[in-house]
Each structure stands twice: as structure tokens, then as C-alpha cells.
Amino acid sequence: GFEDLQLEAGEDPVGDGLAGEIRDSLARVAGLRVLGPQSSSLLRAAGENRLGAAAELLVTTLVLGEVLLDGANITIHTRLIGVPAGNEIWSSKIAGPMREAVELQNGLVRQIAGAIAPNTDPDPVHGPRMQAGECADVYDLYLRGKRLVAIGLRTDPEAKPRGMELLREAVTRDERCAVAWAALARASVDWTMPGFVKAGAAARRALELNESLAEAWVVLGEIAEEEARWNDSEEYFLRALYAEPTNANAHHMYSEALLARGRVQEALNHSLEAYRYEPADWRINWKVSLIARYAGDGELTLKHIGIVGDLAEDYRSHYFYLDQLAEGYLLLGDTQRALDAYGEAAEQIAPWFPDCVRAREDRALTDAVLSAMHDSRARYRSGELDEREAKLWEFHWAWQAIRCSTWMGQPDLVFEVLSAEGIPTEQIYINMFPRDGAVLRADPRFRQLVVESGLLDYWKQWSWSDYCEPEGDGFRCD
After folding, report:
1. Cβ pair 153, 145 in contact under 8 A
2. Running DSSP on this structure, what letter comes out for residue 313?
3. What are phi and psi for residue 27, nearest 5 degrees?
4. In sequence order, what are the residues at sequence separation of 6 or more whose Cβ sits closer than 8 angstroms to the Cβ of residue 114?
5. φ, ψ for residue 340 (rounded to 5)?
6. In sequence order, what are the beta bridge partners of 77?
7. What is the pLDDT along the chain (478 residues), one digit of tens a residue?
8. Tell me, what's the pLDDT at 371?
9. Helices 178-188 and 193-209: angle between axes, nearest 10 degrees
10. Global pTM value
């Protein structure tokens, strides 16, 4: 963390942004493990408990400091604190014109890397994120804009529009500031078509200027994924990881793409790699839990959904938290604790779903469950459900119907729901690859989906699903 000194009233700080740039630059140095922004923020907020928290996260060195932006000049005071002793092992104080901030920062990164790991080459593998003189007239706008967007995505949605305004001003005043284009691309992703168009254009512009910016490649990967351009998405995510092998968000987003391809174990490996660099990000922990569930690992599912609950305590009553908790218990064969978890989410649970869970062990319940579930969906399709129940079907009951039908070995309803309920593209494919989903993968409609969507061509070019393999000119799955 970098504290801002002598801020003018109403002025946006630059310290957080500068610390983020130093962190991202250090992550490009081979041999260093650098925690991401969420975990760094957790350490900063720990106060007097910072050293203990750092030790739990296997951190050996804290990078702290203060920044003073005084008119056109900037002063950066940096300290390295050893963990767990808390002793200062190195310090530096540098100053110069704000126009030279990037040059000062690059020199500082090399000094920090050399002080932390003297035997490590301090030069970034793909060169610095910015060259001396780059973004000289807009660097403060970029730092402030990127920080406000991050705050907007995490805690304060009202901060994001202001951050995007500053980033747009930065690229307008200096259209060759690649990092500002990359930050604008990230901020523009809102899962709408206009947002994708703007994000894609900004990401491509960033990469025209500097093809080693992982965040821009990740944005292109996300867009290609949503558009079912499997091969392009794979290439973009791999380019991101080539540029920055320690980029937590690149591993995080790539893991979801791999899950949708049925490459479940690889997906789990990448989600765990994301966790390694961002152990305090609840979204990354949730993704590890989800993929562990698809891999059939109940203990890992419960471990990481437990971390989610610790990091985001208000999330413990959320349906998606309780559903994940219940699935972990089911994997361990603890039906009663699973039902207890679903009981805490009773308002979002379909009336027939608890009996569906019980029917996994008591097959005498199967016929009644399937009849109630089909009747529920028919009433939704015909508009007979009241407004509350219709919304519940769209947001929760459809997923419960998919899980129930999979457990009961009834693929018909799964394919009907996935084709008719407006489920996002990637989610359709993810639902095909749970460990207990062999009945879905044996269905002719799965084969049709794989061929018509281009997924078969993707497998042939890149890597096959954990559950499928080539057979003659086609393929077979289990």
C-alpha cells in the first residue's frame, strides 16, 4: 500500500494506483510471487495484525510507502518490511517531475526486485509495462481513473463512471498511452453488446501499442468466449498467460473457459493458480469451489466455499453460497447437511427440489419428483406461475431442474431448459461437464451441440475434454 500525503480537498489520490502499477510491474519479474490487489488490500486493512496476516498468506516481504504529488512534482518514499519480524530491510526516497514518474517507477521496481531477491534478474521478462516518457502528460489521470474503476467494481458502483471518465480523458489527450487503453477496456466490459464493442476496440488499441498487456488479452478472451469463438478465446487467454504467467485474473477467467470445454482438471489447476496469487479474493475462491464441485472433490469444494464465507460474511445467506455448500456435502455423501443448507435458502428453493435431493438415496420418490418438476416447468411456460415464482424459475429453479434431471438420469428436461430459458452460452456447455453428467454426454443432442457449435473442432485443435476422446472420424464420451 502507498499512502497519499497532503491531498487537496476533493482530489482523487494516486497512491493506490501507483502501488498497483508497481505490483503489476513486479509480477513481470521472473521468480517473484506477487499478491494481487484484493489480497494486498486485505493486508493493508489489517493494521496492527498485518504481519500475522502476511505470514498466513506466505508473504515474506511487504512493500509500503508514501506518495506526495505536489503540483507538477512527485515524491515516492518506499520501504520493504520483512515478515514476520517486521524489520525494515530496505528503503528509498526518490523525487522528480510528474512527467518522469514512469521512469522513476521503472527504476524503483528494479531496485525493489533486487532488494527482495538479489540473485533474481530484476528486469521484467517482457520489458516494463511502460517505457520512460510514455503517458507522461496523463499518468496521474490514468492512476486515478484505474483506482476509481477498481473501487467501483468492488465496493462503490458510483466511483466507476468517474474513473471511466478519467481514463477516456487520458486516451483522448494521449492516444498512445497503452495502459490507459487496457484499463478502459477492462472497465467497459458490462456483458452487453455495446459494452463488448467498446471493450474490444480499446483492448485491440492497447495491444497495438504494447502486446504484453495481459489485461487486454483477457478482455478479448472474455468477449470471444461469450461469442462462442472457442479457438480465438483459447489463443487470447494463452497470450495473456504468456505475457504475465502470474496474472490471477487471467488464470481465473481461463479456468471458466476450460470448464465450459470439459477440460475440468485443467480448469481446476488454473483456478488454484489464480488462488495462489489472490488468496483473499472471494470471487476466485468461489470459482475454485465451483470447479472442484464439477471435478467431484467435495473437500476442496467445502474448503473454498468456507473461505468465501470468511471473506464475504454477508454472502453466507446468499442462495449461490448455500447451493455450493450443499453440493459439497452431497459429494461427501452427507445428504442431511445438504438439506439443512438448502433449508436456509428455502425461499429460493423449488417445492419439489428437497425431495429430489432425497431421491438420490430413496428412488421410490423419483416418479413423484419428476412429475412435480415437469408440472412446475409447464406452468412456467404457460404463464400460470405468479410473478414471484416466475422470477424464481428464471433465476434458480431452472438450475435446480437441470441438477435434478441429471441426478435422475433424465436428460430431456436438461436440454429443453438449456435451449429455451435464455441461459448464457458458456453456461450451457458448463452444465454438460459435471462428473455425474454421463447421461447428458451420452445423449444425441449433446453430440449435435458439440458438432454444430464448433466445440469438436476446438477439441481436435487444442485438447480434448476429460470425458471425451476421438473415435474414428468422430468422438465418444462417458
Report:
1. no
2. G
3. -65, -15
4. 120, 122
5. -65, -40
6. 66, 93
7. 789 997 765 677 889 899 999 999 999 999 899 999 889 988 888 888 999 999 999 999 999 999 998 888 999 999 999 999 999 999 999 999 999 999 999 999 999 999 999 988 988 888 899 999 999 999 999 999 999 998 887 778 888 999 999 999 999 999 999 999 999 999 999 888 899 999 999 999 999 999 999 999 999 999 999 888 999 999 999 999 999 999 999 999 999 999 999 999 999 999 999 999 999 999 999 999 999 999 999 999 999 999 999 999 999 999 999 999 999 999 999 999 999 999 999 999 999 999 999 999 999 999 999 999 999 999 999 999 999 999 999 889 999 999 999 999 999 999 988 887 566 677 888 999 999 999 999 999 999 999 999 999 999 999 999 999 999 888 999 9
8. 95
9. 160
10. 0.94
Strand partners, 332: none
Q: How far is Cα 89 from Cα 86, in angstroms, rounded to an integer? A: 9
Q: How many Å apart are CA 9 and CA 429, to the nearest integer?
A: 51
Does residue 418 sit in helix, strand or coil? helix
Pairing of strands 2-4, 61-70: parallel
- Terminal-residue alpha carbon distance, the chain: 50
Secondary structure element (H or E) that encloses residue 181, with its range:
helix 178-188
- Residue for grid cell 487503453: 181
Separation of alpha carbons 295 and 301, rounded Å = 9
Cα 285 from chain centroid?
A: 9
Q: State the angle between helix axes of 282-294 and 264-277 in degrees (0 to 180), rounded to the nearest 10.
A: 160
* Residue 313 amino acid letter: E
- In a 13 Å sphere around the CA of 282, the CA atoms on its Cβ side amount to 16
The answer to whether the CB of 349 falls within 8 A of the CB of 342 is yes
Within 10 angstroms of residue 161's Cβ, the number of other Cβ atoms is: 12
51 in Cβ contact with 83 (< 8 Å): yes
Cell numbers found for residue 283: 470471487
Cell output for 316: 453466507
- Provide the residue type at 215 as one letter: E
Backbone φ, ψ for residue 83 (5° rounding): -120, 135
Relative to beta strand 88-97, strand 73-82 is antiparallel
- Dihedral of the CA atoms 396, 398, 404, 409 (nearest 10)? -160
124, 115, 34: which is closest to 79 by C-alpha? Answer: 115
Contact 200, 229 (CB under 8 A): no
Which residues, listed in sequence order, are joined to residue 94 by a DSSP beta bridge?
76
- Residues 6 or more apart from 456 whose CB is under 8 A from it? 450, 474, 475
Beta strand 88-97 with 2-4: parallel, antiparallel or unpaired? unpaired
CA distance 54 to 290: 26
Residues 6+ apart with CB under 8 A from 8: none
C-alpha cell belonging to residue 96: 522528480
